[in-house]
Fold each of these.
Amino acid sequence: MDRSLVVAAFIFALLLASPFLLPLIGEGYLLGLIIKAMLLAIAAISLDLLIGHGGMVSLGHAGFVGVGAYSAAIGLESGIENILVLLLITLAVTGLVALVTGVLALRTSGVYFLMITLAFGQMIYFTLTSLAAYGGDDGLTLWSLATLFGSDVVQSGSGLYFVVLGTLFATWWGVYRITRSRFGRVLRAARDNPERAEVMGFSVTRYRLIAYLIAAMIAGVSGLLLVQHAEFVSPALAAWQRSGDLIVVVVLGGLASRNGAILGAFFIVIVEEVLGSILHEWRLIYGPLLVLMVLFAKGGISDLLAAKTPRGQTS
Amino acid sequence: MSMTLFLILCLNGLQYGMLLFLIAAGLTLVFGVMGFINLAHGVQYMVGAYMVYAYVALTDSFVLAVVLSLGTALLFGLLLEYLVFRHLYTRSHLDQVLATFGIIIFLNELAKVVFGPATLSIAPPEFLSGSIQLTETLRYPVYRFVTIVAGLAVALGLYFIVSYTRIGMLIRAGATTPDMVSALGVNIQRLFMIVFGVGAMLAGFAGVIAAPIFAIEPGMGDNILIVAFVVIIIGGIGSIGGAFVAALLVGLIDTLGRSVATMALSVVFDASFANQIGPALASMLIYILMAGILIVKPKGLLPAKGVA
């Protein structure tokens, strides 16, 4: 039995029980916090598919969260209310944007890939700021949210909580299956030695592009759910600092580790919340904390928990 | 568009390009020689700007403040190198991105705490505050001229140092085959430190000369850092010459684009649409340029030889 499955079972059991336990000690505020962390975790797991398994360090991943959120928001503004339809729109739009940017970006690799994804992320950001009809720079508050065939179960409180939890689980499971499949093995082979994979007859670019598409679409879905949770979209979702935050989550959690991405996301949200409540200038502590974690905790959180978890190389 | 406006825009673009070059030069050397991605390089620019503000307030002399700021920027860069960066040279790019991201977060917040979140500004020094008559209708501020000249002087100086001195030879050799340079008995650690310190000082210098022109605010280094990255990618990582060409290109295209994009669009589309899309398109131009160049020449315009 893989030890990471035990950790995952524990995490998801805890998340499943939280809505029933938390009202006893806290209130809706805590649930909101967990939703926030889970949404971050969904995007982080998708980025980890790229970084951990594909060796593609993208500094523009938050752009796809932004594209997903805006696709949903614009769909809502045009009168589409069914969340399943919005989901299809989100997947289609993020997939299309990822296809175009991916084909171009994957002509490069390594640091150049990092920079070109950063450039595409910035292009997405500036495109979103130019959508004057949908708030431009200031963002857009949504007065009506998506429904599931007229039911408001996907809108707020525990209903939304379970939808997000379900999505997180589906993402976890989906990425787990992908990385265990032949596709995942080719992706890792291409990460460790692209020439060898190419010589063996695999089209490295095609495998990478498909991984890039999948990661972008998952990030888009987290954007859609973010709209449901925050009832607000703004270009800041796609800012490059958000992409940096996602990398922080992935690296802190440990590369090629889905549990790590979840733990990393919770770690960040909790640190932000706890430090923020102690000190208004919490970033003064958070910044050096990041530096120290890089210098002294190389493998990330998941390595501290499970020494045997298979983990990718970091370059 | 009138010829005068066009000339002014070109000069502004040239001046922005010089600023970008000062930042990109250090960035590209640090990356080329050490293979180190330093997201915190933009912070040096911010440090330079805040330092000159503080020293002007302290000493009342712009020249003295510039000298002191440069010294502080150099020391600060060396301090960061000693405390953090030198432990990261052998680590993966991902670790470097993460650690330097942490430094950005810290220093931006620190600037906010020490100097307040509001924008600050200082006036250009008295003796550089006038403007020059260029043509009958065109006057241009002396201070902006001086920044262009200063940028050119630094570019020439760097070119001379890198091409004709022993340290420059070591830098070039280090950028190509660092292991071999180290094996030949060169203290590569010290070379790294020098490159790092000079890079930090140049970025600080950019901040110093930018302070009287742009607003001084926390986070001011972030955006210009991204543009500086665009510059070194377009120019080819590790190449000073490439950085120079690319910086001018980016400076001119960005400055001209901001004025021309809306105008050009309004020729084809109606005015309200052009007003809406123009600014966004202008902001995107340099990224489109970079994506285009990477697609045609994945290693940049003038790649340094042998850089991986």
Amino acid sequence: MNLLVCVKRVPLTGGKIVLTEDERAIETRHLGFTVSPHEECGVEEAVRLVERHGGEVVVLTLGPPEAEEQLRDALALGADRGVLLATDGGDWDPEATAAALVDAIRAEPADFDLIVFGNESADNANYQVPIRIAHALGRPCISGLKALAVEEGQLRGEQEVAGGRDVYVAPLPAVVSVKEGINLPRYPSVPAKLRARRKPIERRTPEPRPARLEMLRLSVPPGRGRRAEVLGEGPAAAPAVVGVMQELGVL
Amino acid sequence: MSVLVLVEPDDLSRQALTFARGLGEPVDALAVGEPVELGGVRTLHVAEIDGYAPLAWARALAEVGADTIVAAGSDHGHEVLAHAAVLTGGTFAANVTALEGDTVTRLRWGGSVVEEARIHGAPRLLTVAPHVIAAEDADGAAPEVRTFTPALADGDLAVRVAEHLDTSTGGVSLADAPVVISGGRGVGSEEGFTPLEELASLLGGVVGCSRAVTIAGWRPHTDQVGQTGTKIAPDLYIAAGISGATQHMAGCKGAKRVLAINADPDAAILASADYAVIGDLAEVVPAITAEVRRARGS
């Protein structure tokens, strides 16, 4: 099987988000970066499928040149090679992102049996890039999977819904998006990290397109402007906690 | 100008409908399979499609058409509108909280960042951010109901729910529980959750956890509260040994009250909790359990 996984570089934001002065990005000078969580599970899932069925996993990202770090992370999980669509780091809207990814997929020598996305990116969460790509490539798309299996050229996927799971079956080739929880990604070993440094990454420059969902400015919603009311310290606070429960009517 | 709202029989759809009525244009609605009870709507279009098939549902929305197409900020809502955006050539903004002219306000980072964006092109497709606008029922005449069979294209039903597996245990779910008690890294181990379980069952609530706990393998991902886990809206959320990363707090924004139990008086969570107890959760949680029992006289 030939699999493609699309990932996004996002900052590790911690307890408080601070914006840049122009209010168009998160201040990341003091932050680390990671692969968006749903997508990390996507890489793990693709690697497991190839471990089972044979084939190759290609990992693709659109982002600043530093996103090579996230491609290396995916390669350390077991992907075979990477493609970096290097931008100047600005905000790409979902249609422009999808169009650039479609161009890159069409330029690949491999015909991918399965293209894997995260259900939504941790940062912008536009909920549409996988579906736009599925339409452009004329493939079915199953979203938000918490279980995935390939048997005899058929894809079987499960979504978590209220009270249970919805099961989907679709033919390959297909596009899927997955959610965190579909697996617990492996922790890459030191040899795997060393191997990842030698795996090939191809760099391309995507063609910018005008945004139809044009970001104007960002803001951080005001907090409650006060800190929590401290009910007490240690076990001695228990009666005050029960008082709050009685007030809320949850006792 | 017209607004068309995709409605399912759930509270998030009622929130989306409330948002749509606030836009000041005539509102029509589209339900699939069976009519949904609603008010403040001109026409209720009922598309005859058997079960959930995202592309077919999107086809039905595109066939009815409108300048603004609105849906709930749910898995179905996001998925159907993304398809409908492609079918109509429109522009889709997810998790919207306001629309003013051609400018939307929408949530990024699970609600930790707010974006203002200009929508170019038409139609505009918007999912409504969950639990930002309270659902209100509108009075007035019942809508005119129009049942139709959408003209589906080949492949529109290729992706549809083939089977439903019932995994409910009969107990209250994390998403619906009136009280949720979550543990974080500070719980220290899988066994450390036992006192949390005990307090939760005493209160008719359920136990949740942070992402650090899931990654450590102490609890299953189905227990995870947060941006990439379950989003909860209990009357009381108790976060024990949880530092308060934005990704975790994104999952409990719907909670009426948040009580943090943390050994660190400077933990980030104290800036977004209503109440705090400073101390070792391994001592505090059992003390609360004992006090609840005492208060109930048992």
